[in-house]
Amino acid sequence: MIGHFPGKKFKGVRPPQMFILLVVRNDKKYGYEILKELRDVFDGVWEPKTGFIYPLIRKMQDDGLLISEIVDDREYYGLSDDGRELLSDMLPHFGHMVFMATRVATVVSKAMDDLGLEMAEMKDPNDATDEERLAHLTEMRDHIESELVRINDKINEIEGRK
Questions:
Q1: What gap in Å lies between CA 28 and CA 77, rounded to an integer?
Q2: For 28, which of 21, 47, 78, 152 could close a Cys bridge (C-beta 3.0–4.6 Å)?
């Protein structure tokens, strides 16, 4: 994972904190819901552990990014005003991460081509079945295609200004 987000304003905010802010952006969730959603989203790529997530949630509360509320003996976490402001300020900077990921993917893809390998041959850390790998690769393709459309629209917009 990339260590920090760019810019002084976001100093000390790491990607896992950003992911937690994104998970609770619309609804308050209790700790296990946050953990489960992160595991579902990053399935096969990153498996956050309770020993990592719960202390991070506490730190984010201490830092004023999250608020909590006890309902039916469960502690639910949501964005504080500062957390919502930070999230709003950080989201535009995700372009940096997308460019970084694109460059990494380009380098890896070229290396795999040089070695006579295909992306579909990449090893899944969880030894997924072919069906799971197919679903994951299809999801990746669909996401990349939609991002390419968005990027193309942006290029056309910029070129139209010349």
A1: 5
A2: 78
Helices (H) and strands (E) in the chain, counts: 6, 3
Q: Give me 31's structure tokens.
A: 């700790």
Q: Answer yes or no: CATH 2.30.22.10 is held by domain 8-90.
A: no
**Whole-model pTM over 0.70:** no
Buried b (16+ CB within 10 A) or exposed e, 55-70: ebbeebbeeebbbbee
Predicted confidence pLDDT, tens digits, the chain (162 residues): 334 444 445 567 888 999 999 999 999 999 999 999 999 988 877 889 999 999 999 999 999 999 999 999 999 999 999 999 998 888 887 777 777 887 887 788 778 778 877 665 555 555 667 787 787 778 778 778 877 888 888 888 888 876
Helix (H) or strand (E) holding 66: strand 66-71
Phi-psi region of 112 (alpha: psi -120 to 50; beta: other; left: phi over 0): alpha
Could you state, in order of their start, the residue ranges of all structural domains in the chain?
8-90, 93-161
> What is the helix (H) or strand (E) element at residue 88, kind and residue range?
helix 81-90
